[in-house]
Amino acid sequence: MKVISAEFVTSAMRPDQYPKDGRPEFAFAGRSNVGKSTLLNTLLKKKGLAKTSSAPGKTQTINFFDVNGRIYFVDLPGYGYAKAPKSLRARWGPAIAAYVNGRDSLKLAVQLVDARHEPTDKDLDMVALLERARVPTLIVATKIDKLKRSERSRNLARIRETFDLDEDAVLLPVSGVTGEGIPELWSFINDMLA
């Protein structure tokens, strides 16, 4: 899909605040500071559309972005450590679960993990939530540009093992900085639309 237009639509924490037009949605999930917003900006070729920060926890609501007037990209709040009030962080888990479990228009969840680190228990919990909700999920290893060539295969193997992915399962390395993996990610999105 060629991106002609991309714009922020709404922030939500409850189902009654979600867009109601039934367009296909592609959600991006991952721990705080994994690079969700950077990846969204790269995919949509619009710097600053999704707000980024070096401090974890910039995304504090479920944010919907209109793409070409045809689909929505959905930026979910990061889980794990975040610079946000405890009361707000406590609302993220139930809000994410309500979105994932009750959204028929959700076509694909893109689960981001930092290629430099072993996936956390919270990463595994998120994938389990998506499995229970029967949401097709693609595991994406972000920040691949920060690894030396010698570290890549070892780290990707560790991620594959942690998620218990068989050898046929896709684990997509990407970089929001260099653009590596972006065409392949678009290919997955287009396949889900076909």
Describe it.
The chain is α/β, with parallel strands linked by helices. It has one domain: Rossmann fold. It has helices spanning 36-43, 86-102, 121-132, 149-162, 182-193, and strands at 6-12, 25-30, 62-67, 71-75, 106-114, 137-142, 171-173. The longest helix is centred in the middle third of the chain and has 17 residues, at 86-102. The N and C termini lie close together (11 Å). Mean pLDDT is 88; it is low at 53-58.
Shape: globular
The helix fraction, in percent, is 25-40%
What's the structural domain tally?
1
> What is the name of the CATH topology?
Rossmann fold
Number of continuous helical runs: 5
The largest sheet, given as strand count, sense and whether it forms a barrel, is: 7 strands, mixed
Strand order within the widest sheet? 1-3-4-2-5-6-7
Structural class: alpha/beta
Please describe the structure with a list of short key phrases separated by commas or semicolons.
194 residues; Rossmann fold; globular; alpha/beta; seven-stranded mixed β-sheet
List the helices and strands and how they pair.
Blueprint: E1 6-12, E2 25-30, H1 36-43, E3 62-67, E4 71-75, H2 86-102, E5 106-114, H3 121-132, E6 137-142, H4 149-162, E7 171-173, H5 182-193
Parallel strand pairs: 2-4, 2-5, 5-6, 6-7
Antiparallel strand pairs: 1-3, 3-4
